[in-house]
Amino acid sequence: MECGTRSQRNNVAELRVLPHLDAARRIGLLLFSGFALPEAATVLEMFQSANALSQSEPAMSGKLRYDVTLLSIAGGRIDSSSSVFVWTESVENRRFSDGFHTLFVAGGAGARHALRDERLIRWLQREGSRSEAVVPIGDGRLLLDAAGVERSTHGWDAFLRGAGEPHRSAEGGFAAVATAPVRKALALIEQDFGGDFAREAVGRVMTQQQTSFTATIRENVSGFVSERIQASAKWLEANGDRPITIDDAAQIAAMSERNFLRRFKIEMGVTPSDYLLYVRIDMCCRLLVDTDLPVDKVARRCGLGSGGWLAKLFRKHLSTTPTEYRTNMRRTTA
């Protein structure tokens, strides 16, 4: 693995959030210390996927985007149950005359402590009354109950129970693991854009969460993968396009480098370096199919240096060249 800068290490877990746009549905994710990262991240990824898809389709471009904001009581850095930190804005700094369209309220130890925070309870009461829907994630329901906020106020949640649910009709594998908050995010996307669009958005998230290489790797994982190792693997997938070190990934797992190397190999079946390599190869596969970038640029964008090195990796792992892979995959999906 390559060396990263100190500033990169200090910001490894920052989630990128869409900039505010005037013509956007405002989505809030209220987070507390100890929140469940995978669930909150999947909700965020669903809206990001919808934004990327709508931007790529001329008929949809500019019509609607989701403006997602990560929030906490005081703002700043919030730690998840996986010891991964995300950056948030203070609830008092994000005030809109018409409130959020949908507000997700996460749980965690911090949420239970916040039950005694009268200022937050008042904020929830105000925002809950103005939002189209309020959705708890885990113990977030305790805060909504304390504030007397209904968990769905205007009924698009009922749309989820109707015909044409994208997560059931086309993505059964995703439905098997999708939680209620994720399904509600999908219901909103389907209501806004239609079933076909929502199915494609789900497919993109599934591709991001389980690529062809990581799926192969996970066939050899142990019966139990700890939350910390899962978080580090997900972080490697999200940051594979930039220089990172083993120490970076170990910090995500809140372990010493030696213990991290040992635990990752035991639980994931491969070393962190090999896992990162497979992630980068898979990133190259997607860019080769989805773009017309030259092979050299594809390799550089995915952290693999040069087209020559990428060609060697493709011959070793896929028994083909990058150019042949691009041609064959496009012919298959045409």
UniProtKB/TrEMBL annotation:
Q: Which GO terms describe its molecular function?
A: DNA-binding transcription factor activity; sequence-specific DNA binding
A Pfam family per the record: HTH_18
**Gene3D superfamilies cross-referenced by the UniProt entry:** 3.40.50.880, Homeodomain-like
The name of this protein is AraC family transcriptional regulator with amidase-like domain
Q: Where is the HTH araC/xylS-type domain?
A: 230-328
The parts of the chain that form a coiled coil are none
Q: Which UniProt keywords apply?
A: DNA-binding, Transcription, Transcription regulation
